[in-house]
């Protein structure tokens, strides 16, 4: 698959939306309540997915959408990295009250509460998936998707020089 092709961006969008779908599955089927940091990571995955879809349909502004997707990924990496650090240092607080209130006041939490309403604790002990915590998996996927977008952008720039 060629970097910056439609299939390339569709795959990135599919993986991003798949990560959100898996998070919703864990919430609905397994009963894991998302914390505010989890919701912000969902926003990052959705940003990557939406901007990747826009890159598919708007070929002449593809670099813009690719850059915005990378920006979403970088923001998600920061949030997921902080979340992982909280799990490694459970005595720290995630600021549950102000952050949870802010996340739950967003219009998305009112329109789609099943997807964007925060009701969990950032330091909740959840069973690991293949030996890693859910925020660690989120961090891995966010780094992978962001790097994939960055490599595609670098290859595109080299191709046009």
TrEMBL record:
<keyword id="KW-1133">Transmembrane helix</keyword>
<keyword id="KW-0813">Transport</keyword>
<feature type="transmembrane region" description="Helical">
    <location>
        <begin position="64"/>
        <end position="84"/>
    </location>
</feature>
<feature type="transmembrane region" description="Helical">
    <location>
        <begin position="39"/>
        <end position="57"/>
    </location>
</feature>
<comment type="similarity">
    <text>Belongs to the DsbB family.</text>
</comment>
<protein>
    <recommendedName>
        <fullName>Disulfide bond formation protein B</fullName>
    </recommendedName>
</protein>
<keyword id="KW-0560">Oxidoreductase</keyword>
<keyword id="KW-1003">Cell membrane</keyword>
<dbReference type="Pfam" id="PF02600">
    <property type="entry name" value="DsbB"/>
</dbReference>
<dbReference type="InterPro" id="IPR023380">
    <property type="entry name" value="DsbB-like_sf"/>
</dbReference>
<comment type="function">
    <text>Required for disulfide bond formation in some periplasmic proteins. Acts by oxidizing the DsbA protein.</text>
</comment>
<keyword id="KW-1015">Disulfide bond</keyword>
<dbReference type="InterPro" id="IPR050183">
    <property type="entry name" value="DsbB"/>
</dbReference>
<dbReference type="GO" id="GO:0006457">
    <property type="term" value="P:protein folding"/>
</dbReference>
<dbReference type="InterPro" id="IPR003752">
    <property type="entry name" value="DiS_bond_form_DsbB/BdbC"/>
</dbReference>
<dbReference type="GO" id="GO:0015035">
    <property type="term" value="F:protein-disulfide reductase activity"/>
</dbReference>
<keyword id="KW-0249">Electron transport</keyword>
<keyword id="KW-0472">Membrane</keyword>
<feature type="topological domain" description="Cytoplasmic">
    <location>
        <begin position="1"/>
        <end position="8"/>
    </location>
</feature>
<keyword id="KW-0812">Transmembrane</keyword>
<feature type="topological domain" description="Periplasmic">
    <location>
        <begin position="26"/>
        <end position="43"/>
    </location>
</feature>
<feature type="topological domain" description="Periplasmic">
    <location>
        <begin position="82"/>
        <end position="136"/>
    </location>
</feature>
<feature type="disulfide bond" description="Redox-active">
    <location>
        <begin position="35"/>
        <end position="38"/>
    </location>
</feature>
<dbReference type="GO" id="GO:0009055">
    <property type="term" value="F:electron transfer activity"/>
</dbReference>
<feature type="transmembrane region" description="Helical">
    <location>
        <begin position="7"/>
        <end position="27"/>
    </location>
</feature>
<feature type="topological domain" description="Cytoplasmic">
    <location>
        <begin position="156"/>
        <end position="161"/>
    </location>
</feature>
<dbReference type="GO" id="GO:0005886">
    <property type="term" value="C:plasma membrane"/>
</dbReference>
<keyword id="KW-0676">Redox-active center</keyword>
<dbReference type="InterPro" id="IPR022920">
    <property type="entry name" value="Disulphide_bond_form_DsbB"/>
</dbReference>
<keyword id="KW-0997">Cell inner membrane</keyword>
<feature type="transmembrane region" description="Helical">
    <location>
        <begin position="134"/>
        <end position="154"/>
    </location>
</feature>
<keyword id="KW-0143">Chaperone</keyword>
């Amino acid at each position: 698959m060629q970097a910056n092709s439609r299939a390339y961006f569709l795959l990135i969008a599919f993986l991003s939306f798949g990560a959100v779908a898996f998070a919703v599955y864990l919430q609905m089927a397994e009963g894991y309540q998302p914390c505010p940091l989890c919701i912000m990571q969902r926003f990052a995955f959705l940003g990557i997915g939406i901007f990747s879809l826009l890159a598919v349909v708007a070929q002449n502004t593809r670099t813009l959408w690719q850059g915005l997707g990378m920006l979403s990924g970088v923001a998600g990496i920061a949030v997921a990295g902080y979340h992982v650090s909280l799990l490694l240092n459970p005595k720290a607080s995630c600021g549950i009250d102000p952050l949870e209130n802010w996340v739950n006041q967003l219009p998305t939490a009112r329109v789609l509460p099943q997807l964007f309403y925060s009701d969990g604790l950032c330091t909740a002990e959840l069973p690991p998936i293949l030996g890693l915590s859910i925020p660690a998996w989120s961090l891995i996927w966010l780094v992978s998707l962001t790097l994939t977008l960055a490599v595609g952008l670098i290859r595109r720039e080299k191709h046009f020089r």
